[in-house]
Amino acid sequence: MKTVRKLWFADERIFIETSENKILSQPMRFFPRLRQATDKQRSQWTESYFGLHWENIDEDVSFESFTWDDDDPLTLYHSPVRHSDPVLSEP
């Protein structure tokens, strides 16, 4: 991803348009501070190498999260833990 040309909010989602003319979005349910922010607070964002940042509400959204196929980022990290895994079984 190059840079964000445009950022907007609609239908409980955050949208970005990249400099490569891609429009990407994700649900805001995982960003409660952003969800509860005023329009003015939402408009005060900056872009970093890793994503978007709202200093005034201490919220970050990674660029990577816009590319996930699943709208639920938690499913990427949830997997069954097996106690027989060697790393988990070591004292």
Task: Describe the structure in your own words.
It is a single chain. The chain is an alpha+beta fold. The chain has one domain: 2-Layer Sandwich (NE0471 N-terminal domain-like), CATH 3.30.2020. The protein is 15% helix and 31% strand. It contains 3 helices and 6 strands, in the order βββααβββα. It has helices at 32-36, 39-43, 86-89; strands spanning 4-10, 13-18, 23-27, 46-47, 51-54, 59-62. A hairpin with a 2-residue loop joins strand 1 (4-10) and strand 2.
Quick overview of this protein structure:
With 91 residues, the protein is of the alpha+beta class.
Any idea of the CATH topology? NE0471 N-terminal domain-like
- The coarse overall form would be globular
Strand order of the largest sheet: 1-2-3
What is the CATH-assigned architecture? 2-Layer Sandwich
One letter per element, helices H and strands E, the order comes to EEEHHEEEH
Low-confidence parts, pLDDT < 50 over ≥5 residues?
Answer: 76-85
The number of strands is 6
- The computed structural class is alpha+beta
Q: Output the CATH homologous superfamily.
A: Uncharacterised protein PF10387, DUF2442
**Total number of distinct structural domains:** 1
Helical residue percent band: 10-25%
Average residue-wise pLDDT = 82
How much is the radius of gyration in Å?
Answer: 17 Å
Distance between the termini: 42 Å
Individual helix count: 3
* DSSP strand content: 25-35%
CATH class: Alpha Beta
Multimer state: single chain
The largest pleated sheet is described as: 3 strands, antiparallel
